[in-house]
Amino acid sequence: YWADVGSAAAGFQDGAIYQMPKGGGAIVTLAAGLQSVGPLAVDAHNVYWTTAYAGCPPPADGGACPPSSGTVDQMPIGGGRVQPLAVGQPLPFDLAVDATNVYWSNAGAGDAGPSLWTVPIGGGPASQLLAGHLETGAGPGGLAVDERDVYWAGVNDAGVSAVFSMPKGGGPITTVAAGLTSVVDLEVDATNAYWWSPEVLLDGGQSGSVSAAPLAGATSFTLLAGDTLGRPTAQDAASLYLAAPSAVLSLPKIGAAAPANVCGGQPGVQGVARDATNVYWLLTGPSGELGGMVVSAPLP
Q1: How far apart are alpha carbons 16 and 7 in whole angstroms?
Q2: Are strands 206-214 and 293-298 parallel, antiparallel or unpaired?
Q3: Which of 40, 68, 146, 234 is deepest in the core (most CB within 10 A)?
Q4: Residue 117 has what pLDDT?
Q5: What's the mean per-residue pLDDT of the chain?
Q6: What is the value of pTM for the model shown?
């Protein structure tokens, strides 16, 4: 499953959600005509996604999208009716799902600031879990859930990037790690949180580091890999799988080795997923062209 955000020439009004057999085959368009499709999540029954705008007039009409026109949507695997779970969302930018609920964060409207929300799978009243202290500028991937808690990339009272957690039903907030330059592509397993922190270099370039910290919180975090552009977007029991600009990498969670090359020479890697036997990733095409690809390779 993957999302196509749409074409800038069409005002990002031609976004779509697609489905394809893992071994290759016919591509199924699950939903089309979406505006600025955001992060995508899948469980055993449904596909979930966000749109930044819905129901806005085409650019040729001279209209402007209202600030709170985003949605959180659900559709059965295989296709069916699109069910809006939440509407009136100001720029939703992260998405996660567990066995019973969908979670997302949005940029907020006016002076309200960013906020974190949840809604039952299948629909129901949406609840705000948190207001403020979310990191909105690092891109998607700053939200994760496990059986008990929700984790997010945020900013503490001193304005410093951090990783936080709180019980899903609300409760005290735990600082998992603080003192970070930023937090991108947050992953959690049964014991630790993992993330990539970008750093701007003196020559104007960018590198970063992959780090880990216990879910219960700690006074410091563990550096797993430095000087890397690989962002963790998938995992298994032993390794993280990193999406780098021109390669897919694997990295041991214990930090005993440098990232290993799963598949290099892959320009424009946009994200990595995995199952029991393979790694999958998306490649962007040249600007303005329909040249993107979905690629797979056996797990190393």
Answers
A1: 10
A2: unpaired
A3: 234
A4: 94
A5: 87
A6: 0.90
Looking at residue 238, what DSSP letter applies?
S
Two tokens, residue 179: 């003192």
Distance CA 283, CA 291 (A): 8
Distance of CA 33 to the CA centre of its chain: 21
Tokens of 15: 């976004």
d(CA 92, CA 42): 17
What is the DSSP pairing of strand 101-106 with strand 92-97?
Answer: antiparallel
Q: Which token pair is 176?
A: 């998992």
Tell the burial category of 272 from Cβ atoms under 10 Å away from its Cβ (0-12, 13-18, 19+).
buried
- Give the up-direction half-sphere exposure of residue 126: CA atoms within 13 A in the CB hemisphere: 19
Q: What is the Cα–Cα distance from 174 to 164, expressed in whole angstroms?
A: 6
**pLDDT of 135 higher than 90:** no
Terminal-to-terminal C-alpha distance of the chain? 22
Q: Which of 242, 233, 277, 276 is nearest to 262 (CA)?
A: 242
- Centroid of chain to Cα 13: 21
pLDDT > 70: what percent of the chain? Answer: 89
**Six-digit token string for 206:** 């960018």
Q: Between β-strands 239-244 and 247-252, what pairing exists: parallel, antiparallel or unpaired?
A: antiparallel
- Tokens of residue 217, six digits: 């919180």
